[in-house]
Design brief:
CATH architecture: Orthogonal Bundle
CATH topology: 434 Repressor (Amino-terminal Domain)
Radius of gyration: 11 Å
Helix content: 40-55%
Number of helices: 5
Length: 82
């Protein structure tokens, strides 16, 4: 897997955890995109990359879908315990 070449931004607090969980379960960005789009989340590859890099804001509906697709709680995504 590629290593992040740019530093994280400050537009959200979930991006690091989304990337961490996605990689830990062996999911590629395109697979996550597909699952999010099936759930009605209108996001493209650039948007997901920016989300993971904390360079864009995350909406509440995106947060719910991300937690569901990744099999984690919203609390964990925002920095809480598992």
């Amino acid at each position: 897997m590629r290593m992040r070449s740019q530093p994280f931004g400050d537009r959200n607090i979930v991006g690091k955890r989304v990337e961490q969980k996605r990689k830990s379960i062996g999911m590629k960005q395109k697979d996550l995109l597909t699952k999010l789009q099936i759930k009605g989340i209108d996001i493209n590859a650039s948007g997901l990359s920016k989300l993971e890099g904390q360079l864009r804001y995350v909406t509440d509906v995106e947060l719910v879908a991300l937690a569901d697709v990744l099999g984690v709680s919203i609390d964990w995504l925002v920095g809480g315990q598992a």
